[in-house]
Amino acid sequence: MTLRPLSVEGADFRLCEGGDTRGVDVAAGVSLGRAPRGFVRANGLEAGKGVPKPPRMQNPFRYFNSSPEVIRVAVMMYIRFPLSLRQVEDLLFERGIDICHETVRFWWNRFGPMFAAAIRKRRVHHRLFSQWRWHLDEVFVRINGETHYLWRAVDDEGEVLEVFASKRRDRKAALKFLKRTMKRYGRPTTIVTDRLRSYGAAMTAIGTVERQEYGRWLNNRAENSHQPFRRRERAMAKFRSAKSLQKFASIHSSVHNHFNQERHLYNRENFKLNRAAALAEWHLLAA
Questions:
Q1: Among 89, 187, 189, 221, which lies 20 to 30 A Cα-Cα from 83?
Q2: Main-chain phi, psi angles of 54, to 5 degrees
Q3: What gap in Å lies between CA 21 and CA 13, rounded to an integer?
Q4: Bridge partners for 150 per DSSP
Q5: What is the mean pLDDT of residues 108-127?
Q6: Do 156 and 140 belong to one domain?
Q7: Helix extents (H) in the chain
């Protein structure tokens, strides 16, 4: 078995080529035995206990030949707009960027969750959402001939708080959806739903049934929030699994929140400033 020398902040140890980690005291030339998976021994000390850990590389684009700007543009075009993979490929080729449509697929699967998590973390940290009134709704999604349900929570300003895919819409699924949403955003003053009895049963279990409201046209905010996702679903020719549905819906909701400027509430000049700010923030994701 071949040992290659490594060095971390002046501490010498060796790592086996086959993944077998053995601490070696270089000064004494004596093996310290097999170390548990996940850490190594250096001069008789565990990494992280007396020896500083090696700095982690934070650049997620370090193994890619394409520039981060091209990757961000490709991911944004595919998720934000109702375009297919090949349409994104053609649009980028028109701008002098020659890539395959499978490269676009790999990029959005690799970087889409990363960008969505960064957007969600920022919006939660700055509290860019409302706790006054939430709107909850679910829609039918067909996957390989089977009916699945996509739950959605929206605040009174149209911010998509949470999306959750499930195979049923019973009390158990509604309870899991509510717990996930309230764990991240807290409890709202009012929750507007339709007349699905699963909502009432789930809210009774968590003690918020007195905050529930339902009525005709009260839940139009959640109903309208489904429209961008429905347009994107048609462009993708539907989904192949519930896992891919959950992944894309979560990414799409975060990107939609980031670029949704509510242009009907602003004049042209303010809308242009908000749009430029959103694009500038997008170009700094994972920088």
A1: 221
A2: -65, 145
A3: 10
A4: 139, 165
A5: 92
A6: yes
A7: 68-80, 85-94, 101-125, 171-185, 197-206, 220-235, 242-259, 268-283
Residue 232 lies in a domain: yes
Q: Tell me the pLDDT tens digit for each residue of 212-260.
A: 999 888 999 999 999 999 999 998 888 999 999 999 999 999 999 999 9
State in Å, rounded, how far the first CA of the chain is from the last one. Answer: 40
Amino acid type, 60: P
Q: Is 140 contained in some domain?
A: yes
Write phi, then psi, for 233 (nearest 5 degrees).
-65, -40
Pairing of strands 41-42, 45-46: antiparallel
| pLDDT tens digits along 45-83 | 344 445 555 555 578 998 898 999 999 999 999 999 999
CA dihedral 176, 178, 179, 181 (to 10 degrees): 120
User: 188 and 211, same structural domain?
Assistant: yes
Which domain covers residue 26, as residue numbers?
A: 3-46
Q: Which residue has the tokens 């990107």?
A: 255
Pairing outcome for strands 146-155 and 22-25: unpaired
